Amino acid sequence: MKIPGFPGNKNKRATKPDRKSKSLIPQMKDWQPWVRQVMDWTVTSGSVLLCLLMLPTRLPGMELLGIGPNWVLIWVVAWSVKRSVFLGALAGIILGLLQDAMTAPNPTHAVSLGIVGMLTSLIQKQRFIQEDFISIALIVFGMAILSDTIFALQLSLMSGNCGDYCLRKVEGIWTYYQRVALASAILSSLWGPVLYYPLNRWWQQVKLIHNS
């Protein structure tokens, strides 16, 4: 039994108005080359400045045992993961020196962050690691452990050799940095993708337009 339809509705499809979202700013490919370059420098340098300012900040949900995420290390990983070894190491050294300017030059963060940038660049993500939430979090976790270990090693070497006192001091350093490294690695791995994805998306768009 067929239910009769309403007159005038036979073979009639509901049509939706063709609405196209109009952006308030022109597409990036329509920008002047110098404008894109200035915007790229602004986004990159602005994100570095934001990470440096976030280091001493302790917001709710961003603290574990008094330790916050290592935002500078997250930025170095985000920058280095798709760049050459030289650019990764250079970015790590520069950001390490900037972090030293905010804290103390001895021991320096440039060594640990330079090694982090170099090793991250050596990871061939196209073959071994898929680019998703988990992979970025795992990279940040491992590099945070490595960075804090190198920093603790520098402190141990600076303690010198003065008998039992220095030995106890070195043991205290490693005991303390075991807790620091674990807490920093956990928080950094959780917040790493939050910083990585918007930066990576921006850099990919700039690269695609530059190569087109």
First CA to last CA: what distance?
60 Å
What structural class do the secondary elements suggest? mainly alpha
Q: Tell me the major beta sheet.
A: none
Supply Rg.
Answer: 25 Å
Q: What portion of residues is helical?
A: 55-70%
* Shape by Cα distribution: elongated
| Mean pLDDT, all residues | 79
User: How much β-strand is present in the residues?
Assistant: under 5%
Q: What is the element string, with H for helices and E for strands?
A: HHHHHH
- Total helices: the number is 6
Low-pLDDT residue intervals, each spanning 5 or more residues? 1-25
Q: Could you characterize the architecture of this molecule?
A:
The protein has 212 residues and is mostly helical. Helices cover 65% and strands 0% of the residues. The chain is built from six helices and no strands. It has helices at 33-54, 71-80, 85-102, 110-122, 133-158, 164-211. The longest helix is centred in the last third of the chain and has 48 residues, at 164-211. It is elongated, with a radius of gyration of 25 Å. It starts with 32 loop residues before the first helix and ends with a helix.
